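Continued from yesterday's entry.
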Amino acid sequence: MATLGQRAEQVLERLGDVPSIFFEGSWHSSGGLASRASRAAAGFREMGVAPGDRVVVMMANCPEVGIAYAALWRMGAVPTPVLFLLSLDELRHVVTDSGAVAVVTTPEFLATCRAAAPGLPLVVVEPDPAADPAGVTPWAQLEAQPETGLVDRDDDDLAALLYTGGTTGRSKGVALTHAGLDAAGAAGYAAGHLPGRTRGLLPLPLAHAYGLLVAVTGLHAVEASTSVLMRWFDPAGFLRLVQEHGVQTSALVPSMIGMLLTQPLEEFDLSSLERVSSGGAPLSVEVAREFERRVPSVQIAEGYGCTESSALISAQPPHERRLGTVGRPVTGVEVRIEDANGAVLAPGVDGEICVRGPVLMRGYWHSPEATAETLRGGWLHTGDIGHLDAGGYLSVVDRLKDLIIRNGFNVYPRDVEDVLLAHPDVIAAAVVGRPDLRVGEEVVAFVSLRPGSTCTPEALVAHAREHLSAAKYPREVRVVDAVPLTSVLKTDRKALRTLLREGP
């Protein structure tokens, strides 16, 4: 194992100074990025940031996000990535709970950061010269320092503090170590790399665990590659960049794939695109097949992970994909399925997915009780329901907390959603349970339709009834302009339950 700062030095030594990142019209070389990170590390130290200190990084994607991470790793501090879509209260909680000593941001988020972190130094990339300069350090000032060497850190020292979405309460800080992220990067590269696939496109937020995994995977590269970085995902922009740069690979979440399917894919030359990794949420088999039908050069490879596992648990072997599963556990990771009493279940039987291996978090920040519960027996209890097949491939069925119990029967929202997504007029679907005095919980579906569709809720109920048992099909379907998503583009079931309470 090595620290992430050491890995960054090793990959530069191995591959040399080569074109690395294309962002909004400009190329950035690997050597130039490394030099900027080294100078920024000295700048952070000059500001008073010390090894072990947490620094909040709240920006949309740009090269400075990766430079900030690399600089903080280099001088021994801990990036605390934050999605820029967080509310003021959510950001204030992260700043306070993490004990952050500084915040890195861009001008459009400066006011929010200033309100959430009063008194903390603020580093701003390309600050507005007309704005109030109080407490603001321009990013260029960090890089004005001479380059600096690596600070010694142990493999088990904290490398990142990521906050979970907090859909069931206050978000918790997930403490990830250098060793854990390094193991995930190595396993991710081994699982997904094929020689010659060297042109990638990254639309995922680098502040999310999935985006961070993609970044640390690159530290294990054995051949030079280039990445086209998007500030944020835009389906039309994604397609243009694939065509312009001959992109071969990309990493997406299912909602992004769904958005791409609403675009005129056939009007773009996407023949270079060979592999799309999908993660972050379950992917419908029907959606995967439809995307592959319309972009024949592509194979979608669904994987699985969570923040507590450094975003990686399983991946599809490059030449042995099994559609409808999330692949096999990656190198060094063990998976078993447990029942409610902790007994290990046989292949094919659904239960809680439990994980053991070097990728696991050190624990939840300042939450020893939650850590002990989640890591009991040395296994990460993911809260996800799934099963292993005889070949060791993992299938994820749903979240334990999203399970609907109707008349004593378990209804997994994903089963219902997959059936609805198979209807040609449905582009997005989400299912939640509504309390019901007669059956306990009733199944309610929210769907968005293709433009121009005249499909009715009654027709969708009939479609679901045709393909699902009487216990599972939704008695109510609500058509919405867009299924609500969280800041990381997962279905926002909390928002859906609020809609349920408010009525049609």
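--- second protein ---
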Amino acid sequence: MTWVKMDENLPHHPKFIAVSPAAAWLYVCGLAYCNRLLTDGRIPAGALSAVAPTIKSPIRMVEQLVSARLWDTTDEGWDVHDFGEYQPSSEKVKAKRRANAKRVAEWRDRNAVGNALPIH
């Protein structure tokens, strides 16, 4: 599981204030989508309805996010603007997960029942 990093001043940032509450929610949901699926900030056009299924007419909200320069338009959909400056890259997340899995496996090997010291 990854976490979404947001500055505590985000609700007061001029870009964020410039969009509607629904567009702001789409932005937050977009961050969660990108971190959950390790997309490095990319949101494919075909996935838009899955990003925030409760938002009606999400394309209108996207227009606001692009206008406010919170999202950038690409040939495939959109990129969260400056995603990599605030969120971990997919490679960093994968490396951390591999290191954690290795640490857990080593702990389990050390603490396996068959590895217990004999009682005399």
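The first helix runs from residue 14 to 17. The chain is about 50% helix and 10% strand. Will compare against the first tomorrow.
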